Amino acid sequence: MKEERKLLTKIARQNGGMLKVEDVLEEARDEGSPLHKHFEWDDSEAADQYRRQQARALIQKCKITLIDSQPIEIRAFVSLPTDRENGGGYRLTSDVVSDERLRFELVRDIQLTIARWTQKLNLLDQDLAEAILDLDTRVNKVAEERKAA
């Protein structure tokens, strides 16, 4: 990836620091480019992959409303790391939260997401990063309390 990163940096610099998808694709069309291998050039296969991505986006848009004291809208389906490792797929959120093992996996995935957000936020804003760390502490505390119960 070092060669690809250098080439992408070069393209960005040639465009005033902006890396655009169109420019990356233009460079990648050349079979001699180190970027070429990262794309599907068979139009039928690429179309199928794009439709799969559209299906993922559709699944992620589906929401359900939880009614406690205040109605709250959440995703109807979630993707767990083990599912993504085994070919992908989405589970009903209600099934995940009602199964201890699956719920634990979802909480762990949330914790890892928070850690990634914190790393990104540290690049921009220390106060926001600390707010995310506070959230992480609260999530960890609740997870431990439920684990102990």
How do the strands and helices of this protein lay out in sequence?
Layout: H1 2-14, H2 21-28, H3 43-61, E1 63-67, E2 71-75, E3 77-78, H4 81-85, E4 91-92, H5 93-97, H6 100-124, H7 126-148
Antiparallel strand pairs: 1-2, 3-4
Helix pairs in contact: 6-7
Spatial strand sequence of the major β-sheet: 1-2
* Mean pLDDT value: 85
Shape descriptor reads extended
Please give the alpha-carbon distance between the first and last residues: 46 Å
One letter per element, helices H and strands E, the order comes to HHHEEEHEHHH
* Radius of gyration from the alpha-carbon trace, in angstroms: 20 Å
What does this structure look like?
There is one protein chain. The protein starts with a helix and ends with a helix. α6 runs antiparallel to α7. The protein has a domain of 74 residues. It contains seven helices and four strands. A two-stranded antiparallel sheet has the order 1-2. The chain has a two-stranded antiparallel sheet with strand order 3-4. The chain is extended. The chain has 149 residues and is mostly helical.
Could you give a quick summary of the protein structure above?
The protein has about 150 residues and is mainly alpha-helical.
Features:
single chain, 149 residues, mainly alpha, 7 helices
